[in-house]
Predict the 3D structure of the following.
Amino acid sequence: MKFIRFFICFILIMMLVPNLVIADDFDEPTTFDISTLTVSADATQEPKISSRRAIVMERNSKAVLYEKNSLDVCKMASTTKIMTCIIILENCDLSSGVTVSRFAASTYGSRLGLHTDDSITVQDLLYGLMLCSGNDAAVCLAEFCGGSVEGFADMMNAKAKELGLESTHFVTPHGLDNDNHYTTAYDFAILTDYALNNPLFVQIVGTKYYTVSINGSPKDIHNTNPLLGNLSSVYGVKTGYTSQAGRCLISAAKQDNLDIIVVVFGSDTSNIRNNDSATLINYAFTNFEAVDFAELVNAKFLDYKDYVLPYTSILKGDSSKLSPKLGELPLKFYPVRKNLTGSLSVTLDEFDLEAPIMESQSIAEISVFIEKNKVFSTNIVSSSYISKKSSFDYLNYFILNYKNFYQIS
């Protein structure tokens, strides 16, 4: 009879709360068999994936190598915790102790397993947040850092604005479905790239197994990321799942000098999500290589100094005082399709110069083209100020040349 009463109560609760969701990775398998991956054999073809939204972004150049509905606004489930994690890393002392509130302990979905008045450090909460996707850890961190979930959401949205995530809005630190909690695959590629600049973030999301301490007692946890440790190129980042967001996975992978972020949102099953992610990683590494644009530009700059600078003139100025330097190189490596590397060309455009020349003024431009399409450029600039010639300068020039003329005669 007790079981029947419990079952009836459960049915009534489910009927009264129709929007209840199973939250992020709650039903993820604890193990992953890489043999279940069915990556397309012909990775040179444009990949066909089943997930509703995806993007592959190269980190150094921010170039998009593949996209599918990447600007569509959607829910992102617990990939939200990427933002939660980076805000904590930037604002909190990881050694600080935290006491778990009743509200945090009651958070449903995937959990670290916290109880009211438990004692745990910020660092261990972060590992619980990113490895086993603890929603209770997320709320605990939000209350500690922002004073409340609402206060922390304000911090999340301020950071989103700072990073230019124009189609993103946060309500919670964990990502449970909410109509006002949304993003795009493109925005989360940008956010993930930013987060990966933090070494502690990279360390956490790249950890497969970890032991946290709750009230001084150890608890072993594992990373829900199915590709981490199974694809050698993958070094992060985060899974996600809610009934409305579907299966989500953000991966960071590096091979040689090609460093990519792969975002997959809205998969119907874990296998689809895993296969689509692996397919996009394979596609990127099979079809693109990171070309050292800095090496190409520096070689052209040396040519400029050796073969162009000696013949450069400055109207109304002394060209012998011209001391060029290469402008800032915003990137070093750039992803180029392997079948197009032969079409790379580097050009030099000289500017007409007239004194005065300001320090850091552009005097020439170096550009890199792929199939006649400019993909990169940087300036050659003057390293010093060159004044306009005065009447005395012209008189002195005339006297010197007059003497030389008669000495030769």
